[in-house]
Amino acid sequence: MVQNNGKLELNWVNKDKTLIVKDYDKGQYEWVDPNDYRVSEVRLFKEIGKFGENSSDNLIICGDSLNALTSLSKIPEYRKKYVNKIKLIYIDPPFNTGQMFANYDDQLEHSVWLTMMRDRVLKAYELLSDDGSLWVHLDDTELYHFKLVLDEIFGKENFVASVLWENKPGIAMDAKQFSTSHNTILVYSKNSGWKQNYLKIEPNLREFKYQDEQGRYYKRVMLQKWGANSARADRPNMFYPITAPDGEEIYPMRRTARGVEDEGCWRWGVLSYEENKDKIDWVKNKEGWKPYTRQYAEKSELRPPHTWWNHDEVGQSSTGTKEIQKLFPDIKPFSTPKPEKLLQRIIQIATNEGDIVLDYFAGSGTTAAVAQKLRRKWIIVENNEETINNFAVPRIKKVISGEDKGGISGGVNWTGSGGFTYFQVEKSMFEVHSGIICLAENALNGKLAKLVATQLEYDYQPDNEHFCGRKGDVLLAVVEGMLTEGLVNFLLNSMDKNKFLEIAALSVDPELESKNYNNVKIGKVPNNILRHYARI
Questions:
Q1: Overall number of domains in the chain
Q2: Do residues 174 and 45 both lie within one domain?
């Protein structure tokens, strides 16, 4: 750590760089400048399919989370819908076990992990609403490092809590030192005025086995007092006869420690008994009739969330595994799935019905499954296509169809509804040939107009015949070919005289270089886009 201008912060190798992931599985990464074209590029989304009703409410996105978050914040239709609109971001990132970074020595693996995480949180921060919160699931490997990073991004004053989740309640007898039984979830609010929801605590009904005529649960407590001060001599006015169902008079008789029968006392006086005798349960055993009072279970109450979440309340690691096995009995379980009750508690504390939840390390889709059952909108991102196709997509389909009866389904009376759209982050629009950045083939054939409009931050207008983008009083025209003087004049004649025009073309007639237009800016793709990135 270093002190910089009086501010305490964490420093690491290449902190001023951004990390490009080349291959997650092989642990191949590259540090680049933050304005590198690979960081600045806004990838389009390719629709793979839709499922259910209101499918635009919820998104499954397959691709690198850095690209996906950039696209959500930059593509106009998503920017308007999601920037500063997401109420809860929950992430369970890959823990830095060292296995992810086999190609780096111990001095660099922390830098790789911290850079990867920092870059994504910065992108996600733009999407978080002013009254939203971020929940980050970590183990001790990077917990204390990353808290300092989050302090820098959110401000120390917006740290809310460290929640300890008891994920492994047993004792690991092979532990070298301490047996670790918990993970930590760091909670940050975007602003200091964040207000969480209180938890509705249901009473523990295990002891309350009986129901009265109104359906209220109660347990039986002996009317006769026992223990200290239970002798007649202690409370003389509590010694009196009461009538059993068969007419027999019953006195509060007790046995002393020596087994001698002795006179005891009731818990109620005569007046209290007369007022409540219709609420007495009579039970007959070998010793005769015994009267019991009714002690009712407390009603549900609301309380602030606390920071110790034991496995009895929200499940443990094995709970999540069992839930996945039940859904997919023929597939090897996804590693480290979280129990649905854990996500239920987080979502209920941080959101209300209709709010948007984001998870950009989605794994098997637990966050989306629980958010759907709790009637929230959601976005999940996962880079591993196999994980999405084998677990997340079929799992959410089961939730929406009502086939998923496990997890929290019974507790929230879930029977199915909703829908989602499945997207894939498209490949880069750029390629490098002999050290020169060029347009890739997949950027052509009808895609160029939307790609250019998105990169140059125009609102895309697909239905406009001549101008595919607009930014205030500036119109954008994209020419997938050579731009000529005649085409420039045609475009100028097709627009209002008080507007400005930017033209992006694959090539430009050399004769246009000598022309000077007051209200026209001409650029050649991709150079004009790369220059725009450098200015961001």
A1: 3
A2: yes
Structure tokens, 380: 């999940």
Residue 127 to residue 379: CA distance in whole angstroms? 11
Distance between CA atoms of 534 and 536, rounded to whole angstroms? 6
Q: Which two tokens stand for residue 472?
A: 């205030």
Domain housing 321:
2-194+304-425
The first and second tokens of residue 482, run together, are: 């050579």
Instruction: Give pLDDT tens digits for 177-223.
Output: 888 889 999 999 999 989 999 998 777 777 888 988 888 889 999 99
Chain centre distance of CA 34: 27
- Same domain flag for 418 and 453: no
Q: Please state the length of the chain.
A: 536
Contact 476, 456 (CB under 8 A): yes
| Number of neighbours of residue 376 by Cβ within 10 angstroms | 24
Instruction: Report the 10 Å Cβ neighbour count for 98.
Output: 13
Question: Does residue 249 surpass a pLDDT of 80?
Answer: yes
Using alpha carbons, list the distances in angstroms from residue 33 to 14, 345, 437: 10, 39, 16
List, for residues 126-143, the tens digit of each pLDDT value.
Answer: 999 999 999 999 988 889
Q: What is the pLDDT, as a whole number, of residue 284?
A: 93
Residue 290 sits in the same domain as residue 153: no
Same domain, 335 and 413: yes
Residue 187, in any domain of the structure? yes
Residues 146 and 216 in one domain: no
Under the banding of pLDDT at 50, 70 and 90, the label for residue 175 is confident
In a domain, 431, yes or no: no
pLDDT tens for each residue of 334-361: 778 899 999 999 999 999 999 999 999 9
What's the predicted TM-score (pTM) here? 0.82
Q: Which two tokens stand for residue 341?
A: 């009750």
